[in-house]
UniProtKB/TrEMBL annotation:
GO terms for molecular function: thiamine binding; thiamine pyrophosphate binding. It holds the Pfam family SBP_bac_8. InterPro entries: SBP. GO terms for biological process: thiamine transport. It is found in: Periplasm. Keywords: Periplasm, Signal, Transport. Signal peptide: none annotated. It comes from Paractinoplanes toevensis. It comes from the Bacteria. This is ABC transporter substrate-binding protein. One of its GO terms (cellular component) is outer membrane-bounded periplasmic space.
Length: 297
């Protein structure tokens, strides 16, 4: 591992990183993790109580894209939730806008989404309903649910990204809004997917430091290291995501053709909207409860 080579630091991997474990360790004053691959939403909601604030100068927030950082997190990579369709299932008219995802008369067929409200569906619903992308936040949830209701009978709520991939490969779903890393894998597995570059949301992946981490300074060094250009490029090439910092030339990544096809950060990819971090930190729990009730209602 490059960081080990550079610093002599060794790692012990423990999976999965459950939020409940962080709470238990911190409450007992016995934190044993230094880094966790965990949602920035949780880190933002419990910043300073369950997670350490980042104060290493090497993690200068000004070096990251606007709207992608918090006191307790910085992005380690960037990704997008993109609308794609299976071209084999639409041999004639083709979807061309996010509105088509919500038009089951013109484009019948199942739509698969990840069973989690932050996966791009709510922003897409509002834009499809006529809300300008720069006015999507704060989310008008009543309006969004009303729009999603129009296709509820055609929606499939996937319990995992693996399930999404399988449905796309098996043609059990005609359309999808999901992270592009998964559409890339699906396409590599034979799904004839086409992205629709009209509107998509972008977000970040992050590593966070549990409160009381025994090696906080070293953990911050690791965070700074993985956001350096060389490491960012290596991860982007492996996954088809984008580097955390905008000063990395995407042409230097060496994306494969299929990765380029689904990469929302390349030029001419329609309207992109960075998901509002603070809105999701403040509203995820309540929206998840409403989402769960709505699905069975």
């Amino acid at each position: 591992m490059p960081f080990t080579t550079k610093t002599g630091t060794t790692f012990t991997n423990i999976s999965p990183a459950e939020q409940s474990q962080v709470k238990t360790m911190v409450a007992a004053g016995k934190t044993i993790w230094d880094l966790a691959n965990m949602s920035w939403i949780y880190a933002g909601a419990y910043c300073g109580t369950l997670f350490e604030k980042l104060d290493d100068p090497a993690l200068d927030r000004s070096k990251f894209p606007p709207g992608t950082t918090g006191d307790c997190f910085v992005p380690t990579y960037r990704y997008a939730n993109v609308f794609s369709y299976n071209a084999d299932l639409y041999p004639n008219a083709k979807p061309t806008s996010i509105k088509d995802f919500f038009d089951t008369k013109k484009f019948p067929g199942k739509r698969v989404v990840y069973d989690y409200p932050k996966a791009g569906l709510f922003e897409a619903a509002l834009v499809a309903d006529g809300v300008p992308a720069d006015q999507v936040y704060p989310l008008d949830l009543d309006r969004a649910f009303k729009k999603i209701d129009t296709i509820k009978s055609s929606l499939v709520f996937a319990p995992s990204y693996g399930a999404i991939q399988q449905m796309l490969v098996d043609k059990q779903a005609a359309m999808v809004i999901t992270v592009t890393a998964r559409t890339i894998v699906s396409a590599q597995s034979g799904a004839n997917l086409v992205p629709v570059w009209d509107f998509n949301t972008t977000d970040i992946g992050a590593l966070v430091i549990p409160k009381g981490a025994p090696h906080k300074a070293l953990a911050q060094q690791m965070l700074a290291f993985v956001t350096e250009p060389a490491q960012s490029v290596a991860y982007a090439k492996l996954t088809g995501t984008a580097p955390a910092k905008p000063d990395v030339d995407l042409n230097s990544v060496g994306y494969s053709d299929v990765q380029k096809k689904f990469n929302a950060f390349l030029p001419d990819r329609g309207t992109t909207l960075e998901q509002d971090k603070q809105w999701w930190i403040d509203n995820t729990d309540a929206l998840t409860k409403r989402w769960t009730s709505w699905k069975v209602g």
